[in-house]
Structure formats: structure tokens, C-alpha cells
């Protein structure tokens, strides 16, 4: 059994403090396992755990396992291994996703941003020459690995409400909030069109935003987009805020939540570009 980024991650404090120079504990674990980054850069590992990890990594590197593989491949391959023995039927019930058995092979049908992704224990099934972002694969494997089943609370919160989220807030602001605000400033109607194309559902009450849409990128993983358009006369720039269900960490980690929000921004901007090119 190979020692992967998730194994190292489990020995870390999981505070995402950034003292190691990486944005999160998972990013640090990936750099250590995949690129030879020194595990001693984490100042919070106890000496006994540090020595044990260094010995395991030294043996593994002698065999060439993981070293110099792309970050997404390291994490993807590890998570892919981890789901091999997961109970797909139970997961399908907990996540409210499709389940099928054909020729003795189990499969999950995962709705993801308007597509339905087929996943078997051996991995994601590609249709013909279908292109697939490798980071999407990481997200989906992580989603199944978490196998959340806790009922949603229906309470919307910002990323800052989750523990140890500080290092990810800047990434969410830059990769999602700011991108949407800049792309749709003064173009609220275009944002509304893009939201509808992504099957967004308008939300009328409970907020002060000019525009609010609820999205369902994954089952049990709703997002609420709030948008305040610019007001040039008042000197008010466009603002965007993504909210998550209070139970979101039962289904994905902070990295996953940030990635899903960034993916939403990417899709909305793509819909705008498609409309301009028509």
C-alpha cells in the first residue's frame, strides 16, 4: 500500500495555517509526497510522527512511487484507490444519486453541472473521446470518498463560517467572487441569462442582493449566488458572494467547496461568451 497525500494529510493538524508556505494542509501533503518537499516544513508535526513519516517517504521514494507526478494525478490516484471498496449502493442512497448494476459491475450516476458522470469502482467512465478536467476527477472522487449523508440544514453561510477557512477565502474571492463581479458589472441581465442556462433557480427573499440564484452543481451540494450590481453614481463596485449550506463540510472539504464555487464562476462566464459569439 502506497503512502499517499491523504495519508500524510491525516497526520497533519488540518488547520490550514499556512506556516509551511502552502495554502492548505492538503496542498502541503501533495507537495511533500509528489515533489519531495520537506515534511519538516510543517512546524506543528510531533517529533515521533515526523520521524515515522520521513522513514516511510524515504522507502517510497527509493521505489519511485508518486515522486514527480502531477499534483492532480497524485491525489486522483489515491482517492481512486480509496473508493474501490466503497459500498456504492449505500452511497447512492446517502447522496441521492443514481445506482446501477450491469454485467455484475456497479456504477454511480453523478449529476455534475448539467452532465451525468458515470463512476465505477475502477474509475470514471469516459464516453468516446470525452474531455474531462483532471481536477474535476479529483473533486468527484473526493465527493464519493466523503460519502456524506447528513441532511442539509437549509441555512446559508459564507466560507468564513467554516473552521480553518482563512487560507481558502482569498482563493474564493479571487477565483470566484471577483471574476463574476468583473465579468458582469453593469450587466445584471446577462448574468441572469447565464444563471438560467445553468439551471439556476431565482431566490426572491431572505437577502438584500440585486440578484440571487440557487444552483445544484452536485446532489446535496447547493450553492447560493448573491450579486449586487455596480452603481457608478454612488461609486459602488459590483459585488458577488457565494453561500453554502451549513452542512457543506459533510460532503466536501474546504478545497472542494472552493473548487466548486470557482467552477460555477467559470461556467457562468463561459455562458456569457457563448451568448456574445452567437
Describe the overall structure.
With 278 residues, the protein is of the alpha+beta class. It has three domains: 5-74, Electron transport complex subunit B, putative Fe-S cluster (3-methyladenine DNA Glycosylase II, Chain A, domain 3, Orthogonal Bundle), CATH 1.10.15; 83-146, no CATH class; 156-277, TATA-Binding Protein (2-Layer Sandwich), CATH 3.30.310. Helix content is 44%, strand content 18%. The protein has helices at 5-11, 25-35, 47-63, 71-82, 88-95, 134-146, 166-184, 188-197, 254-277; strands spanning 98-102, 105-112, 115-120, 123-125, 156-157, 201-202, 211-218, 221-228, 239-245. The strands form two sheets. The chain has a five-stranded antiparallel sheet. A four-stranded antiparallel sheet has the order 1-2-3-4. The longest helix has 24 residues, at 254-277.
